[in-house]
Amino acid sequence: MNAEGWYLYGVVEAGAPVAMDGEPAVELVTEGRLAGITSRVSLEEFDEAALVERLGDAVWLEENIRRHEQVLERVLASTTVLPCRFCTVYRTEADLRQFLSERQDALSSALAEVAGRVELGVKAFVDRERFAAGGAQENDRIRELTAQAAQSQAAQSQGGRAYLESRRLERLVGDERARFGQEAASELHRRLLDNAERGVLLDLQRPELSGRDEEMVLNSAYLVSDRPGFERELTALARELSERGLELELTGPWPPYNFVSEELRA
Amino acid sequence: MSSRDLEGYRSGGPAQLTDVLERVLDKGIVVAGDIQINLLDIELLTVKIRLLIASADKAKEMGIDWWQSDPFLSGSNGRGELDKRLRAIEEKVGLPTSDEES
């Protein structure tokens, strides 16, 4: 009835220091040069048919996704880990061991590629108000119209002309903001790549996903070995661009989700 | 002064669920494991669940309420079933059914 399977969080080198105190449920399964970070799960909960239903349950999903990430972060604190995709489950220990031994070479070289490196995430946003007061004012036409709008406001003129001008200003600032966002994003990515081993662009998140009102212009991840150097560059970029309305966010260190070799992702 | 003010960028907060989802559901090793959600499902789910978790209420305000009619997410007792029952009742009491009205 209560059959158990093996949930695989990720793979580390055999013998790597993995401290899982306080996580009695997490076990290391060593096979040759590799070890799997696993825990036993009920197949009633994780079997394919049950899983499809669970995936529609936001509470279950959040809890389990967070757990997947937390276990890997614990491992990441002491060694390099190749993260598995959520819900990688084997029915038996023998199946799990077979995977580790069959894919040994590919897994080992993927581990070597990311050894001693971490994934850092960077997001950039443009704050509308700060851009209108900052970056937008570098445009002559916008400066002129802003001054005119201030005058009309001071004179309390509320005619159709003042309205049209304020609409025109709004549109111009919007166009400038889009241009600035694109330019800032490519400048950021280029300079951060110079301070990383590799980098990838991720999908931009809409405000309902990012949880921020500002418009996201960059969402990227970098594989970094020199973390202080990378963070220094990010600080320099923040200083250069913040007055014009750009805001930066750093996340991680993450297990190198975005830098697992293609061969192991397909 | 917090470190965030000193550095000029935000960092160090708890990971946003969207950022975790984006990695844990989309990336990492994909194993030809015994039990696996197939790739197509995952892609579809990621989009749906991100929206659902991020802000179901906000999305609903914007008129995005696919999950209510999606049996995959609302369970087998989704709206389809409700609509059917509603129509049956309407027919019984001699009202024009919802379908004809719209």
Please provide a written account of the structure.
The complex is a heterodimer of chains A (266) and B (102). Chain A is an alpha+beta fold and 266 residues long. Chain A has 2 domains: 4-115, no CATH class; 119-259, no CATH class. Chain A is 48% helix and 23% strand. Chain A has 11 helices and 9 strands. In chain A, the strands form 2 sheets. In chain A, strands 1, 2, 3, 4 and 5 form a 5-stranded antiparallel sheet that branches. A 4-stranded antiparallel sheet of chain A has the order 7-8-6-9. The longest helix of chain A has 34 residues, at 160-193. The radius of gyration of chain A is 25 Å and the shape is elongated. Chain B is mainly alpha-helical and 102 residues long. Chain B contains 7 helices and no strands. Chain B is 61% helix and 0% strand. Chain B has helices at 3-7, 17-24, 39-61, 66-69, 71-74, 79-92, 98-101. Residues 1-5, 55-79 and 98-102 of chain B have low confidence and may be disordered. The longest helix of chain B has 23 residues, at 39-61. The chains are: A alpha+beta (266), B mainly alpha (102). At the A-B interface, strand 1, helix 2, helix 3, strand 4 and strand 5 of A face helix 2, helix 3 and helix 5 of B.
Layout of helices and strands:
The complex is a heterodimer of chains A (266) and B (102).
Chain A: E1 4-13, E2 26-31, E3 34-42, H1 43-46, H2 48-54, H3 58-76, E4 82-83, E5 89-90, H4 93-102, H5 104-114, E6 118-126, H6 128-133, H7 140-154, H8 160-193, E7 198-201, H9 207-210, E8 215-224, H10 227-241, E9 246-254, H11 262-265
Antiparallel strand pairs in A: 1-3, 1-4, 1-5, 2-3, 6-8, 6-9, 7-8
Chain B: H1 3-7, H2 17-24, H3 39-61, H4 66-69, H5 71-74, H6 79-92, H7 98-101
